[in-house]
Specification:
The chain is an alpha/beta fold and 185 residues long. It has 8 helices and 5 strands; from the N terminus they run αβαβαβαβααβαα. 26% of the residues are buried.
């Protein structure tokens, strides 16, 4: 939002300046709500492009161009293929929940989208985990990246043994008490 505000230009018709991709309709709606809340004192145009709803309203929202477009990959490709959206003016690409998009099979769609974007742009990945496929995608898409980790990578301690024991609900407390008496803790 700060970068958009610092460089106030009107988006061209059928384009967006910021493209945010997320894996689900619900998350896309939440992201757009956040943009609108954080930018409530800034005159920005925004739109949501998600599947499962008629495309007509989304096409109309893009006619004059928008500053921020939040989309799911499939619907974004539908809009591009129908010539309702051009990706030639994207200045910022944000991939939210990149690890979930990979798990949900969006990797090929993301590659198609990235191939249509300008080379000069800022790309941001947000991911709870960084599996090898996401790291490879990031390496292919990013130039001189900076990595910010909120917490260190953790794994289960090797000395811990996990097991599941099915017990009737009424017997849980007594079973747990007996189990704790038997186990060397």
């Amino acid at each position: 939002l700060n970068r958009l505000l610092a460089n106030r230009i009107r988006p061209q018709p059928k384009t967006c300046r910021v493209l945010v991709l997320s894996p689900t309709r619900e998350l896309s709606g939440q992201i757009l709500d956040s943009f609108n809340a954080y930018g409530r004192h800034v005159r920005l145009t925004s739109a949501l492009a998600i599947g499962g709803v008629p495309m007509g309203r989304q096409v109309r929202a893009l006619l004059g161009g928008v500053d921020v477009l939040v989309a799911t990959p499939g619907r974004l490709l539908d809009l591009v293929q129908s010539n309702a959206l051009k990706l030639t003016q994207v200045e910022f690409l944000v991939l939210d929940e990149a690890d979930r998009m990979l798990d949900m099979g969006f990797i090929n769609d993301i590659r198609k989208i990235v191939a249509k974007l300008p080379i000069r742009r800022q790309t941001l990945f947000f991911s709870a985990t960084m599996p090898k496929d996401i790291a490879d995608l990031a390496d292919a898409m990013l130039r001189d990246p900076a990595r910010v980790a909120v917490t260190p990578v953790s794994s289960t301690a090797e000395r811990i043994t996990q097991r599941i024991i099915q017990v009737d609900f009424a017997a849980k407390h007594s079973f747990l008490a007996d189990l704790l008496k038997q186990e060397p803790v």
